[in-house]
Amino acid sequence: MGPDLSGSNRKNLDYLLENAIDPSATVGADFRTVVIAMEDGRVLNGVVSQMNERTLTLQSAQEAITIDRQEIEAMKTSQVSLMPEGQLQKLTDEETRDLVAYLMSSVQAPLPPE
């Protein structure tokens, strides 16, 4: 779950590194996490993918949930990115170079079959 990278500033190394090292530094409005407290005590979080007068659709990493807006007790937008911090720390130097090279290239890897 994330933005289409084909239109982003992929050729700018500083841009890529800033977003990989500190993903919460600049979070686009379409990708801000929303934390929702429901009247029944549940707490949900994800990105609002659709909203109208009656319902709100929340996209989490696992699923899309449509919620009746009248059942929402409170809703708060977070400034924290959905992309976890420290992702590059898990990679070797070679894996990091490969990732940056891929992100900066104009080639799209084939998508897996649905």
TrEMBL record:
One of its GO terms (molecular function) is heme binding. InterPro entries: Cyt_c-like_dom_sf, Haem-bd_dom_put. NCBIfam families: CxxCH_TIGR02603. This is Cytochrome c domain-containing protein.
